[in-house]
Hints:
375 residues, mainly beta, 4-stranded antiparallel sheet, 2 helices, 49% strand, globular
Amino acid sequence: MKILFLFILIISFCFSKDYNYLGNPYIKQYSNGEDIYARNIWDMQLFEGKIYLGAGNSSNKGPAQNAGRVYVVSLDPKTEKFEYEYKVAEEQIDIFKVYKNRLYIPGHDATQKWTYGNIYKKENNTWQKYRTLANALHVYDIVEKDGKIFTAIGLKGKGAVFVSDLNAKTWQKIAQGKGRVYSFIEIENEIFATKTFQKKYPLKLNITQWLTNRETFSSRFDLNISRMFPNTKLDNTSVKIVKSTKLRSGSLYIGVKKHNDHQGKPFGLYFISKDLIIKKIQLHEDEIPRDILVRGENIFLLINTKNENIVYKIKEGQLNQKEEVIKFKYPSFARSFEKYKDCFYFGIGSEVENPDKWEILELKKQTGDIIKVCK
């Protein structure tokens, strides 16, 4: 009996050394019950030596509906302390974007009247809100290019791209027809605006391309669902592109099925080259892509399996040659990650299978945990 106890103790000790638990910064705001879902760490972003975290929930279905306003929380890796820097008037912080010395947050779903949508910017150690995007119900993505800000917009039943100078005071609205614009893909000097894709509408316009010389977007009917998601079996569920990450030779992105309103369930990882040749990155059948990081020549992929969280390292030109860097088990899956020096930081999430009929037991109490794993 003593030998068995000692064996269990050794195994438990080894398991605990796989990671360091740093805290759960959103537990103050979203303490228990269905609010646990709003602790999902949708994105993590390194900026000026700190890691920024995004949480909340903009869904009109499922648990913790419309869970804003949301704190912008930063983690200092040197001290491992969290700071509540700012509070956005949004139901969810879905993504951060960094351009030069500017950190942006698109106003995912405003808690104020929909007369205007918002973007937020941290520059020179100061947060500023720009409530200037007329009738924008949702601001899903941001790109900064050539002294302009491009925003992916959801209007009532329609989509648009709003373009402004860096002051973000006045915007040019470029209509994109029916359906919201959810994300941008950057490929070298080109910008592509993407909407949702559906197998039953193969001829639908899903992507437009920015024409710099004409300052407008041009239709790209050729970039349809079968081309953007090759070698992939899809049902009639709407799918969209998330986590688009610019590389020197093109861009990587994750395909997700729309799930629980604004949220998504990943089904594949794809690379689009400068020549618009698109390939699916080979993963094992049980591997779910969650997030992408670029550090110089190295690309890091966050992958979940049923039992483990894995970080792979790949290189441009060798995207199917994966090197396992980190692997650890945890009671729930890592939804997002960042890297600082030789350590990786993970934001833990949870999911409900059916947002119309969910169970409280699906919401893992570890949702919102921040985990550190060093090589």
